[in-house]
Amino acid sequence: MSGQRGRINIVSEQRGMYLTDDPRVCGFYNPIRDAMRRAVNSTEPELELKKAVMAANRTGQPRAFEEIADGFLPWLAAFKATGVPVEGTTYRAGELTLKVRPHLGLRRKDGSTHAVLVHTKEVPLTREAANVGLRILQHTIADTLPGATPMVLDVRRGKAYQMPKRTNLGKLDVLIAAEAMGYVTHWKLSGLFEAMQDGQAEAVGKVG
C-alpha cells in the first residue's frame, strides 16, 4: 500500500532479512513492543517504556523508542484498558501466507476487548493501509481473540483506527488479493533478477 517505490524498497528489505544469517537485521522494534505489552498491565507503564528506551543500543532505536513512548502512553491513559492474551494464526491470500498475531490484546472497563496491530514506523499510517490490516484482523479474529474488535494503532501519533461501518468489504478483499499477488510476483522476480546478476558476476569473474 506504499506505492511503486515503497513496494520496491519493502520487498528488497524483507528479502534481505529473509536471506540473512545475521539476527541483528530483524527485530528492530521488538523490545519496544514487548515493553508495550508489559505496560498495559503495569501500575507504572511509563517505567516499562523507559526501560526499553534506556536499553536501546542500535542505530536509530533511542529516538524511535522515545517517539513511540510519547505517543503510546497518553493514548493508553485515555483508552483505559488492561492487557489480555492473544493467539497467533495464519491468513492466506492467494500464494501468500501471512502469520497474524495482534501485538496487543486489550480489555476495557465495560468488558469489551480489542485486538490491536501496532504501526511503529516513522512514516504515518494511512487510512487505506489501516483498513487492510483491519480486514485481515477481521478474518482471523475468531482465532486470535474471539469476540474482539480489530484495531490498528499508529503508535507514534497515538491514533487508533477501526473499520468504518460503510466500508465495502468485498472491494477491500479484492484489493488485499491484488496486493498479495503483486507482492508474491515482485518477490519471485526479485529473486530471478538477483540470480541473473549473480550469474553475470560469476561469468565476468571467470573471463577476468
From TrEMBL:
The organism's place on the tree of life at top rank: Bacteria
Protein's UniProt name: Uncharacterized protein
Organism for this UniProt entry: Lentzea guizhouensis
Source species taxonomy: Bacteria, Bacillati, Actinomycetota, Actinomycetes, Pseudonocardiales
